[in-house]
Every structure is written in C-alpha cells, then in structure tokens.
Amino acid sequence: MVSHKEFVGAGKTPGLQVWRIENLDLKPVPKALHGSFYTGDAYLLLFTTSAPSYNIHMWLGDECSQDESGAVAIFATQLDDFLGGGPVQYREVQNFESNTLVGYFRSGIKYQKGGVASGFQHVVTNDMNVKRLLHIKGRRAIRATEVDMSWSNFNKGDCFIIDLGKDVYQWCGSQCNRFERLKASQVAIDIRDNERNGRAKLHMVEEGEEPAAVIEALGPKSTIAPGTDDEKVDTSNRKKGALYMISDASGAMKVSAVAPSSPFKQAMLSAEECYILDNGVDRNIFVWKGPKANMSERKAAMSAGQQFIKDKGYSNKTQIQVLPAGAETTLFKQFFIDWKDKDETTGPSKAYTIGRIAKVEQVPFDASTLHSDKAMAAQHGMVDDGKGKVQIWRVENGAMAPVDPSAYGHFYGGDCYLILYSYRLGGREQRATTLHVEGFFLWLHPQVRVTQGQEPPHLMSLFAGKPMIIHSGGTSSKGGQSQTSSTRLFHIRQSSSRATRAVEVEASASSLNTNDVFVLKSPKAVFVWRGMGASDEEMAAAKHVVGFLGGSAAQVSERKEPDDFWSALGGKKDYQTSKSLQNVVRLPRLFGCSNKTGRLVEEVPGDFNQSDLATDDVMILDTWDQIFLWVGNDANAVERNGAPKIDSDPSGRRGLPITTIKQGAEPPTFAGWFQAWDPKMWETDPLARVFGRV
User: Could you say which residues form the signal peptide (predicted)?
Assistant: First the structure.
C-alpha cells in the first residue's frame, strides 16, 4: 500500500483537513483559510467524525490542469486505502459542490482567481494591500466568487463584497432581501477575522449610497443591471435514476444494466458486486461498493464513475459519490423503495448519523427541569410534563360526544377523537388540540398531525401515569365495539420521556421484539413477556394492560418461554433480536422551502443555527421521529401552502408527527434543537446586531 507522508496524521482527530495539489504533491492548507479555493487548483479534503467515520472529497477548480485533476484522484484513492477502504468519496466541482462539503464552511465558500501556476499561495497574512470584488450567491449554501473589479459585474438582486484590505464593504442591491444580506455578512466577517486577523473594518453599503472609497476603487458608477433569477431546477426529473452493475470478469471494466429506472429494491444490490446508480439528470452519480466485491473493482470505483460520465456525455460538473456498503448517504437511499439499514425495523427510532459529528448532546429526561431546559424538551418532544387539563371527545355522525374520563387513554382504530390539552407556559395558558381520525391525530395550536402507532411522547404522557392503549380496529361508541379476537397481543414500549404506549399487534411470534414488553391474552392464559432489553417501567405499564384485559398473568422471560406461550402465538418464528435500536442517534436536518430560487426544498448544509431560519421562507426541521414546519412571518402564500404537501422522505418513513409553528411562537420542543436559542432574536434587526458589534 502506497502511503504519503501527509497521511500520518490523517483521520487521527475529528475535524477537517485540507491539502492543495502543488507540483503534483500534497501541501496542507492553513486552517484559517479553509473554505477558500483557487479556481486554478485541485484540493483533497478529509473530514473525520468522532465515530470515527470519514468523508474524502477531491475538489476541482474550473481552471485546474489535467495533471492536477489526475494527481488528486490518485491521492484520494491512496487515502481511501490508508483508511481501510471505508470512507465515502466525493468528486466535487467548482460551483456544484455537495451539501456535505458546503456544510463544513459556515461562512461560505470563497473562489479566488489564480492558483499554484500563477504563484498564489495559501498564507495567512495581515496584508492590507488587497483589492478584489466578490459576488455572493446562495440562501443556504453561500458561495463568494471573485470577479473583475467593475460595476458591470454588479446587479440589483445580489450582495457583493468590495474588499479593500483595511476596509471591507458589503454592497447590497436594492432587490436583495434581508436574509441574503445576513448571509453575505457572514462572508464579510470571515474575511475580517481569518484573512485580516481581525484588523479590517466592516461597512454596510446600500445601492445608491456608495461612499467615496468605493467609487474611487471601482471608478465612476455605471447603470446597475437588474437582478437575475437563480438557476432553475428541472424538478420533473428529480429522483429518476438507472442502476448498473460494474464487472471486470472479462479482464476489462464493463457496465451492464440492472434496472432502467427508479425506484429500485435493495435486493438488487449484491454484496459480491459494485454498482453505479445513474442520476445524471440531477448531476449525481453514485458508485456503491459491495463488501465482498473483488479488490480491483473496489479500487476502480471512482475511475469507473468518471468514465461513466464521459460515456454518457454528462456535464463535467456531475458529482460522484463512492459509497462503501453500510455508509450509504440519504441521497443514495432515496432511490430505493424498501431501503432498510442494518438492524432497522419499522416505527420510530432515534436518529442516526454517519460521516458527521452530531453536536446535539443527548440529554436525559427530567420532568422537574423541563421548562428551563429547551434541549431536553426538544429531544424528548415535551412541551410540559403532561399534567395539564385533558378533555376528549369522540366524533359520531358529525357531532361531538364526550368520552367517559374513565376510558381516557384507550383509543380504537375505527374511531375519530378530538383531544383538547390545556397547560401553562410562561405564565400564559396554552392549548394543544389533537384530532384522531381513523388512525390519524391532528394537533392544532401548535398544529400536529400524528399517525396511529407514531404518537409523540407528549401525547402519551397525558393519562396520569398509565400507558396509552391503542386497540386494533373497532370503536368505543356504545354498542359499536367490533368483536375482539380470542387471542390478543399488545406491544409495550417506553419513550425517551418515560411515557409508555401499548399497541395491539398481530398475535404472532414475529411481532416480538427483544427491546420491549408484550402482553399476550389467549382463551386459556395471560402472559407478560419481557424481552432482554426491556425496562422495569415497561413491565409496570404491562400491569395496566393486564388489568384491562382481565385475568392473572404469568411472567415469561425471553428464551425461557413455556410451550403454551408459543402455542398461543401459532408457533415459534423469527423476530427482532437486535438491541441496537436502543442507542441509535440521528442528526436533525433543516430544510428551506422557497420558490425564490427554483428549488422548493433546499437543505441547509452543515450544523445549522437559529440564524438559518429565513423569515421569508417556510423551514422544515426533521428530527427523524418528528417533523416541524416553521413558518416565517414574511413567507409568501405559495411557500405556506406548498410546504405541508411535501412528501418525499427517501427513507420510507410514514405517518410521523408534523407540527406547524409560527415565527415567534416556538415551543421548547422546537427551539431546543438550536444551540443557544434566543427568543428575542427577531425583535431587532439581525443585520443591525451584526454591524453593531463589529
């Protein structure tokens, strides 16, 4: 195995490492200048998580040479070998980088003219003799491109940075909005702090109010062009792909068709082979490496992807991701109708991340500190401790019939319920309304839609310490109950907030799960089955279910079941025996819904914060077991109406709770996902705060 001297420290600690190709060799880029790329060069980047897991990126500038492009590809392959073949590899092209790469640079990516051949070096200096113009583009992924110092490059719809060394001017066109101005300011601040070591002064300049220094630098001002629309995306071809198998059995690498169009089935991927998933219409190519594929095919994965792009006549801007089995990205998995990660089962689970550092610290649930700890409230989906006032009605023939309080906590799949919950927050009474319509709960103020079997912890906590019991089918109306089965099985699981739910499931051994407790009632006996990963609280909840079903229960431990137990379930069958679901943690994701850029849904790259909530958009926060729709005060009607209709989850999740929240009325279940949430953030102008402290 060939190993470069720069690889000695590669991947040793979490974080980002960047090298530039100089004279066909690797040279490290100073950390303060990460995110700044010369357009005439090629770069190698390595991102290491604390797991550890790795992402390798080779970045190609528009003007880099063929030799530099070839060199960085060789170094990427060598680095992949050095790290055991497990990293996810990305081919990145200027202006078309993946969200993964863009997310490393919160202050945006800067493209500078020139490169090694022109004598430009990555050196941190205090040089004040700078004179350049940067064009800022992007609402989520910020890109600053160096252009010629000329008024002809300006337009009314964008922000520009006029960098004069000791003074950095942020120029804002008359048609650009406040959120774009705020994002551009991040670039200006980064220039001051990292390129000038804090010694430059920032200035905000409005179109038509340019100071003498700007006029002197750019010359007499000419007519400013109108704003231009951002690149439109052809959404008609989104998610369309074709699947090919790569083979070198004949001595030469060949590609053969597996399936002409998506969606695919996961079983199409054989562990003994490598595959290309062609999403060229969206400028994406994925190369999947089977764990048992031969070494030559695995090592040739990136080059096979590059050759595929050429053979198909795709743009040289097309991204390539090389994915080892087990490290598949969301973009890849969205093409498979039945994708399941290892040990994954149906139903909600904790979120999981690979390839990024999850900065959301897991907070144990403690009801006594619920109101003061937003992070805990958010992670456990709790607006309060569930001790408020509960009222429940059942909908019958279009009218509301009160449910007897003694039956609170019991829900039937054939019924429609309205639940009103009142609680106090910040000294004021708040109300949450839940509508359950034949398997669906809809919460209003905040508005939440919840599918049966996916109830959030807060709803489960409303019934005075008793488990929420969900019956399969039937109705609770008087005289309307359907005939129950002679054998019934209830699955009991505790949420992270310690609330429990008992759901009636198919009375079959295949329904069992080693993580949980089950109550089985047959005509002859009642059993409480405890899985090896079950908790004492789940066992306590089982007593309430037994009390409802009647009879005296026998306790049964997993692997010590009597024959009568298996007979009641129709015999032994395979069931979920992995304990991994208990400790899986996924990273939350934030998306913007906007019709301003041609992309209705666009992910916010990297670790998001409160400032990423664009007040003129609708935002989607995906915490894996719950979805939040955040509506900015200035969002337009198209965005407000379009966002709730979006249903394109690539992982196959269905029926998750969906909560709609208005700007300024964020509950702790939402705010806690954002580090250092400031409830007064929008009371003052964010730009005024930025330039008021610089």
Answer: none
